[in-house]
Specification:
TRAP transporter small permease protein, mainly alpha, 6 helices, membrane, transmembrane, cell inner membrane, 78% helix, 192 residues, transport
Length: 192
């Protein structure tokens, strides 16, 4: 199970970095189009169309890492006041709901990409870009997210069944100490 965890963490981190790079690429493309529109009177990259594809892909690519690191939004005001067994049960239900939603996203995005590819659907712009290509990459991000959601749910249940409630409590959460330790480790890695 540890090997699977390590692989999922590495793939998720890679996808998150790729998603971040896509956001930078969007910013560069839009900036180039703004400058060329003002200087030449026309855009040269057609960044609007590609930025929509890249933005959707970057979101799907970042979802897995966000879930693993606990960077998702949690409203724990009431949950922290509940008895520990109830809180752990609600945490399990939230992991189960996350996995179900992620699987639904993956299924529907793969279905859409397959339909677009098999029908030869293209964008309505002058580029007539094949829609199946960005949709397939988008679906890949959701597939990784679905696998991560399932892994988190199974991992949480395993911790609870083995009586390791503290490990279950820390799953998918990023405490301040953990965040600082990761930032320091990453900074040290950059120096070498």
């Amino acid at each position: 199970m540890e090997a699977i965890d390590t692989l999922v963490h590495r793939v998720s981190a890679l996808f998150a970095r790729l998603g971040g790079a896509m956001i930078v690429l969007i910013a560069v493309g839009v900036s180039v189009d703004v400058v060329t529109r003002n200087l030449l009177g026309r855009t040269i990259l057609n960044s609007y169309e590609f930025s929509t594809y890249l933005f959707a892909i970057s979101i799907s690519f970042g979802m897995s890492y966000t879930a693993l690191c606990g960077a998702h939004i949690r409203v724990d005001v009431l949950v922290t006041k509940l008895p520990t067994p109830v809180r752990r049960g609600l945490d399990f239900l939230s992991f189960l709901a996350l996995a179900a939603l992620a699987v639904l996203f993956a299924y529907l995005s793969v279905k859409l990409a397959w339909a677009s590819t098999s029908r030869g659907v293209t964008s309505s712009s002058a580029l007539a870009f094949p829609q199946g290509l960005p949709q397939s990459v988008w679906a890949l991000g959701f597939a990784i997210f679905a696998l991560t959601g399932i892994l988190l749910t199974v991992r949480h249940a395993a911790h609870l069944l083995r009586g390791r409630g503290v490990d279950a409590d820390n799953l998918g959460r990023f405490g301040q100490d953990q965040e600082v330790a990761e930032a320091v480790a990453e900074a040290r890695h950059r120096e070498t």
